[in-house]
Design a protein that fits this description.
single chain, mainly alpha, putative deoxyguanosinetriphosphate triphosphohydrolase fold, 58% helix, 0% strand
């Protein structure tokens, strides 16, 4: 096995000094990475995922996935990948006395990063991301006066960047420094470590706008601590982020299709027949044989058997590719998703099937139309309030959101006595007049990203006079 320097990739330092460590809680026997998991599990942002769309918005049933149930499943797969990697015989021999420490650290970092991988998704899932991007493209006059990097935050809005902002600034844990996770966990979270990338075709980590311009300094700090710069000059992914991405893809490819079966959008027989055709149009290949489901002792009776075998196959594939390409991953030259790097193209077939039969189902399309109207309505109502310094804005907005933006602009310091604590509408309105347009836009987008689906609908109805 190629020997990667895991010490470089696993710094336990944080962006800010931990108040907990400062108070010398010597009785806490957890590692810094264990502490990270506790911070995210008890966060309000994690709780809100229970009412955020995975694929099917505003569902009243209990069969289909939410962002929370999806994230728990991704967390489990990611942790399993980490354990399997660290208990691999080659790994144990390569790292000898360090192997035990890495076996404690790597699965924990993976577990935490995987659990929060979707924490920044706005209401109504990935469709919500598209709505926000399209809104600013249609109403680009809101971006007049911003530089290209600032405009990129809104024209290429992405839930990964919003999640990084939530983790590093948007959660309240004694101050406005977010959850203040270790740099190793934040680096593993960063699926797209870049801001305003103009080289989207040269490396997988540059495909999307993964960090807002507001957090560029934190990204640079992480890149320095974990040595996340390639020889070509661009940021490279943390190696463990490839495993988080694999865990995410494994779960949505297997479980989204399972949701479609639960909703009776297609039958199990239709699924198998089309997957076989997509894998091999000649009809000579059978997915059941690939997944070893045609053994006499293990003939599938329902979709659960298929799902379990499918996850096992993809997990094994991800680990094999990770170990095979570890040097390229370390150097920042590997630019594929682990489970899509497969001569049998099973992940590609599953993805194409879901696009044809699940994501475009009429019930989902109708719910997404509702979501689009809600998000556009929120932006239509909130942006004029912010731009005009409306004194009633604080009454409908989470109080920590304006405090974060005011702190970024140097207008609010909870320690200083020279600045007013903007707890009243009058104080907030006075300070809001001094906030640059760029941060006013983030004020609105931050708040919307933190909404659950139902709260977004409720707030839209309230602002538009329906309630």
């Amino acid at each position: 096995m190629y020997k990667i320097n895991w010490d470089t990739y696993l710094p336990s330092s944080r962006n800010c000094e931990s108040a907990f460590a400062k108070n010398n809680h010597s009785g806490d026997l957890r590692t810094a990475f264990d502490s990270d998991f506790g911070r995210v599990i008890f966060s309000s942002a994690a709780r809100r995922m229970h009412d955020k769309t995975q694929v099917f918005p505003l569902t009243s049933g209990d069969k289909v996935h939410t962002r929370l149930t999806h994230s728990i499943e991704v967390m489990n797969i990611a942790e399993s990948l980490g354990i399997s990697l660290c208990r691999d015989t080659d790994f144990q021999q390569t790292y000898a006395n360090q192997a035990l420490f890495f076996e404690r650290a790597i699965p924990t970092v993976l577990k935490t990063a995987a659990f929060v991988h979707d924490i920044g998704n706005p209401p109504f899932g990935h469709h919500g991301e598209d709505v926000i991007k399209d809104y600013f493209k249609t109403n680009e006059y809101y971006l007049d006066g911003l530089n290209d990097s600032e405009k990129c935050d809104f024209l290429q809005f992405d839930g990964n960047a919003a999640g990084f902002r939530i983790l590093t600034k948007g959660q309240y844990l004694g101050d406005l420094s977010g959850l203040n996770l270790t740099l190793a966990t934040l680096a593993t979270y960063l699926k797209y470590p870049n801001y305003n990338s103009k080289q989207k075709d040269i490396y997988i980590g540059l495909k999307k706008h993964g960090v807002f311009y507001t957090e560029k300094d934190i990204l640079d700090k992480i890149a320095d601590a974990c040595q996340l710069r390639s020889s070509k000059g661009h940021y490279k992914r943390h190696p463990l982020s490839f495993l988080v991405e694999a865990a995410d893809s494994i779960c949505y490819l297997s479980m989204d299709i399972d949701d479609g079966l639960e909703l009776k959008l297609y039958t199990f027989e239709q699924l198998i027949k089309e997957i076989n055709r997509l894998i091999d149009p000649s009809g000579k290949t059978d997915i059941k044989e690939i997944l070893k489901l045609k053994d006499k002792s293990y003939e599938p009776k329902n979709s659960a058997d298929f799902r379990v075998a499918l996850i096992g196959y993809l997990v094994e594939l991800a680990l094999r590719n990770f170990k095979t390409h570890l040097q390229e991953i370390d150097e920042g030259t590997y630019s594929k998703e682990l489970i899509f790097d497969d001569p049998l193209h099973i992940a590609d077939a599953l993805s194409l099937f879901a696009q044809r039969h699940y994501y475009t189902a009429s019930a989902i399309m109708q719910a997404e139309l509702t979501g689009a109207n809600v998000l556009k309505g929120l932006l239509d109502n909130l942006l004029p309030l912010v731009m005009n310094n409306d004194k009633h804005l604080l009454s409908v907005m989470s109080p920590e959101t304006p405090k974060l933006v005011l702190q970024e602009c140097g207008l609010y310091n909870p320690i200083s006595t020279s600045l007013s604590n903007p707890t009243s509408a009058t104080d907030f309105t006075t300070l809001l007049k001094q906030v640059p347009k760029y941060y006013k836009l983030h004020l609105v987008v931050d708040w919307i990203c933190g909404m659950t689906d139902k709260y977004a609908v409720h707030t839209y109805q309230k602002l538009s006079g329906m309630k």
